[in-house]
Every structure is written in structure tokens, then in C-alpha cells.
Request: fold
Amino acid sequence: MTLVRFISADGSSTREVEGAPGERLLDLAQADGQPLEGTCEGQMACSTCHVIVAAEDFSKLPQASEAEEDMLDLASGATRHSRLACQIWLTEALDSLTVRIPAEVRNMQRR
Ligand code: FES
Reply:
């Protein structure tokens, strides 16, 4: 199991949930009520599932694809530890993962 920690945008609250290998971070976040729209349902077309991965966890994840990188370029408030939650699957090897919800979520599809 992976212990996933969600930190709210303003840093004031933290939620910890457990996820099984094969589970997608976006699904886990939504099940927990995190404010990630995930409008395009993983098509890498909206960036509303943007999260900021804790620096110490970032290298534990497989590298982002070029398509994901391109989408992150459009995400507001993106940092170099940004990822799309729809592109992160939990694995056996991943014991913990901390991500922060970005301050501003903008849906590219609605523009
Ligand atoms: Fe749209 Fe992840 S759900 S990019």
C-alpha cells in the first residue's frame, strides 16, 4: 500500500489516505474529496488534475511523458515538481507520496 498525503493549497490541512498498487492518484484524490476536477478523465487535455509533488517524492515517480510535460506547461502555478494526477499510478515500490493541491486550478477546456 502507498500512504498518500494530500496537502491543501494553503498548506493548512493534510489528509492521509492509503492506496493500492495500480490505483491512479487522480481517482484516489477524488474519492477523498480533493478539489481536482480531472475534467478530461486522463486524456491529458485539461490540466485540472495538476498536483505538486513533494521534492523528496518526485524522483520516486516514473518520468512524465512529453505530452504530460506539454500540458503542465499550460497549468497555472506549475513548478518543476508538478505532475498530472491522472498520469500517476501507485506501485508496490512506492511506500509514500506527498502531493500539494495547487493554489489555482484553471480548466483549459473552458477557455
Ligand atoms: Fe485532464 Fe489529467 S484529468 S489532464
